[in-house]
Structure formats: C-alpha cells, structure tokens
Amino acid sequence: MTREGGERLATLDALRGVAVMGILLMNIVGFALPDAAYLNPDALGPSPVDRIIWTAQFVLVDGKMRGLFALLFGIGILLAADAADRRGADPAVGHLRRMAALLLLGLLHFYGFWTGDILTDYAVVGLLVFLLRPAPPLILMMAAIAMFAGALMTEAAFIADLAQIRNAALRPGADADARALWTLYNSWIGWPTPADRAGEVAMHMLGWSDAFAARIRDYGASGLFGDAGAKLEVAGFMLMGMAIHKAGLLSHPQAARWGTIAAAVGLPATLILAWICWHRGFDPVDTAAVVFAWSIAPRVLLTLAWLFLLAGWAARALDPVSARVRAAGRMALSNYLGATLVFTALFDGWGLGLYGLLGRPVLLLLVLVAWTVMLWWSPAWLSRFRLGPIEWLWRSMAAMQLLPLTRK
Fold this sequence. Notes:
This protein is mainly α. α3 packs antiparallel against α13 (255-279), α4 packs across α12 (228-247) and α7 crosses α8. Helix content is 78%, strand content 0%.
C-alpha cells in the first residue's frame, strides 16, 4: 500500500471512530428511555435541562453521525471492490457475501437485543447501491439527491397521515377505534400515558428469550423491510460517499472551506427547526414533522460539514488520542454492537433492569464512560489481533471460513 493510500485509510478510520462514538449519543436514549423521549424531551415530565440536552443532540448529532457512518460505508464499498479487482476476484460476489453476512448480524441485533439497529438497512441498501458503482461522480451525486428527495416525500406522506389520524380522533363524535389509534401514535411520538410507560417498562423487563419472542411477534418483518424513508436516506448518504470518494473531494484543498459553508447553512436551519419544536410545546405531529421530514436537507448539510471538517483534522492529527480514535474506527462494528450488548445488559430485564430510571444528564455521563472504554480497549485489542472480534466474525462469515485473527 502506498503512503497516500495508508493516509487515506487512516483518515477514514478516524472519521469512522468519531461516527461510532457519536451514534451512541443518540442510541443511549433508545436504550434507556421510553420511545417518546427520543422526540419529546418533556415526555417524562418538563425539565429545562432535558430540553437543552435534547436540543444539542438534535442540532449537532441526531442523524448526522448515522449519516457520516453511511457516507463512509459507501466509500468502503468502493474500496472493497477495488481491492477485489486488484486480487483478480469478482467484486460482486464478495460484496454479496459481505452484505448477506451483515444482514444476518443485523437481524440478530434487531430481534435479539434492540430494534434501533442500522445494520439491516446498510445491508439491504448496500446491495442496491453497488449496482451504481461504475457511475461517475456526477451521476452518483444526482442519484443521492434523488434518494434524499424520495426520503422527504416518504416522511412527508407519513406526517400527513399522522395529522389525519389525530384530526379523526379529536373530531366531535370520533369512534373508539380512531381515538385508540391516535393514542397509540401519541404514546410513541409525543406524550405517553402512565399506562403506556408502564407497558414499555414491562416489555424491557422481560427475560432475553421472552423479549426475543416478543420482538418477533410485534415487529414481524420490520427488521428487514421497515421504514422506507430511513432506507432512502441511507442510500442517499452511501451514494454521496461514493461520489465524494471518486471525485477525490476529501483530500481537496478546499474541503475545510466546503465544510464551513455547509455548517453555516445547515446549523441556523436546524436551530430554527429546534425553535419550532420548543415554540409548539413539542406538539407530537409538528415535532415528528421536524425530526423525520423537514430536517433532512439541513441534516445532509451538517453531515457534510462533519465529514469535511473532520477529514482535515484526521489527516493531520498524530497525537495519542487521535490514534485511539482511529483504532475505535477500525473496530467500529465491534464498538457499535458492543455498546448495544453492554447497555441492554444495563437497562433491560435480563441484566440490571435500569430501564426508565436514569435521566439524560446521567446518560451523558455513561456515554463518556463508554467512550473512554472504546478508546482504551480498541488499540489494546488491535495490538494483539488483526481485526476487531465482530469484524473478524463478519469477514469469516463472508469468506465462509475462519480467517486468521491473532497477529504473528
């Protein structure tokens, strides 16, 4: 590998490390609190501190780290295909095996531990975007924009349906079915009743096998086919990552300037959206519209801002902390799934059962502890082993044989 190639991979590892650490800032809410708390900081009771934390997460992190991870995944698809070409192997066969193995891991993650999984989306979408691998950067970027537009239209249609459900339920003389349907949605995205919260807690207090069976029963094929809007957005980010890599934009001298411009446009727009949520008292329909639909465009801009600004830092940083971030990025899959294992053991009934008992400030402290562990164990593991444990499992599944793990 050339020095330039090694520096490029080191930069991507550092970006991936930041992304997997940043994702935990949002996932911790899903691990520890009822569903409505993700959208509504007042869902468990009014708290100025919770509102401030929610706003900071929404503006700076929510969807941006996931988008950054998807951008890098798209770049990884190209790098893996190029490596297969150099070996004389069939890139399509290798890619199909990797996505099939990732899908299996994602489905186990979704049904076995946590329904907030992103790996199934990456596997399904990754199969499709591979078909555009030969396309030039402009075509890839146009396809990415089309995917984002499709995601916006899909989410806007959902919001329109949601508004109709609420209107039907609140109309004088509304029947019991209409009111029950709105109560169900309202408990998910806005204001859960004490009974709803108790039901969620009871679900999380199940033993592992009972919870697994309940997720199979309640979610059906959602782990594979659910949330079309999210899949379209993931496709947009993957295609955009492929376009950026093919055009060589990450190492462009103007990359930092582009990142600054993207932040200058995306940040005020996202702050305005957050203000709308505050001003509307976190109305469930309005907040869902902001988080799911209207934030897509500024979310793309802020994801690009993170990408370009961090790329310049990653290419120059040589300090020990940066090296640890790169190691965490090389083990991003192990750190992502490891966080789920640790925190579901902390919050769910098969572990310590702390679900719903800790507030957002305490959750932030737990994230800091988790980051410290990631930055400690990732380089320690890689000093003895070639790959992270889940990365090794993934590659061995794709190769259909046990690959060497320990370093000679």
